[in-house]
Amino acid sequence: MTAHHLLPADMRRLPPPWNDLTSERKPALEELAHTEATEQAALEALTAALSGSSASPVPRVWSDESWELFDRIRQEVGYRLARVMPTADRFTREGIADVLREWAGTARPPVPTWWLDGQLDLIVGVLTDQALESWAHDVLRWLQQRPYDEAGVAAAAERCVENGLASHDAVNLLHALGTPHGERALLRVVQDDSVSDNSRSQARDALMGLRRPGYAARAQQPVQDEHPLLPPAVRELPYSWAAGFQWPAELPESEENITRARAILQACAPPGPVPEPVPAPSWHSYDDEDEEPPAWLEVRQVMRELMPYARLVTEERMTEAMRECALLGIPGVPANPGGEDATRFVRRWVTWIGGWVAGEVFVWLGMCVDDETLVVPWAMELAEQYARFGVATEQAVSMLNWHGTVPRSREALARLAADGTLPP
């Protein structure tokens, strides 16, 4: 009977330890000397694993029963599979089927044969993926310890990401390689639409880590002959974006601080409803645990490292941040900094930054200012304006509630609650 091999033909011809599919592979690699020759053997092994599979693709449609069965197989059968098929050349569909059927006959609770046969193709496909993933994990980790041919190692890791083979480990390897080879490969990965969204997101995180020293150096450069995008009162704010523009809780209720708070709120006050409500500065996936974080979080991460203080938010640095975000492949960032989309992008972010600054002012006024005579009536009037027009709404309303004993606050809250045109 012809055996149906599940791993690529080139991988089946590999010598030890590269063909090992058991738990002995990891200690064998740990003992393997790092030389140019063994590194080349590792790269050739990865090439073999990426050379194509003889296994036919099967639809991955899992039922509850499939998950239950596979979980039992993972816990109860893994060691048997490794014992029967310890090397790549012996890893076959028939071998897996024989082990599973033998196990099913003695399993407790028992596993019906008809049930196992109905799930076999699905289980074989997943077991094959896991065997390759585990194998590639160990090889990539070994390569990371002492690379000689950094360009060759980077190329192999990039191919792993492109093919979805141990992508997490491959991105970590590229990050460890650093500049120039790891960074160049990561820059290609983040622009590759064939790579999974998850892998590209991880690659962006790795790239930001590599490029962070450059961001920090730019942030240290003083503003000279640049065009500020925020009002003067906001530019004087001494609190950093890294801390969310948060005002210290111990800040005294001095005339200087109250005057600064009022000037910032007046300078950032929206004259009318904003096209896009300013998002909350923190994002949580409360409604859907599987919801992906919005792309603007990555944009903000780049911006606040390049412009950590409000005084650094200039037209020139905003353009640099936009170019950097586009280079990192962040979705929704205009590629052309001179187009209409770029103009809207800058306008949106200036509004959002101003909104986050104002939101922290409302938090300080509400939580830390006890003398209500210092904030009546101007803070209540501004809070209602902000809430009505979609900027720092949550913080503005919270401030009104914190000063809920003040008639002006209660009146503003009542008007907002009664306005049917506002979001709930």
What would you say this structure looks like, in words?
With 424 residues, the protein is mainly alpha-helical. It is 60% helix and 0% strand. It contains 19 helices and no strands. The chain has helices at residues 9-12, 25-31, 36-49, 64-76, 78-84, 93-106, 113-145, 150-162, 167-177, 181-189, 197-220, 232-235, 255-268, 296-306, 315-327, 340-367, 378-389, 393-402, 407-418. The longest helix is centred in the N-terminal third of the chain and has 33 residues, at 113-145. 34% of the residues are buried. Residues 53-58 have low confidence and may be disordered.
Mean pLDDT reading: 91
Q: How much strand content do the residues show?
A: under 5%
Low-confidence stretches: 53-58
- Largest beta sheet, briefly? none
What structural class do helix, strand and pairing data support?
mainly alpha
As a percent range, the share of helical residues equals: 55-70%
Secondary-structure element order, N to C:
HHHHHHHHHHHHHHHHHHH
Number of distinct beta strands? 0
Distance between the termini: 68 Å
Number of helices: 19
Overall body shape: elongated
| Radius of gyration from the alpha-carbon trace, in angstroms | 29 Å
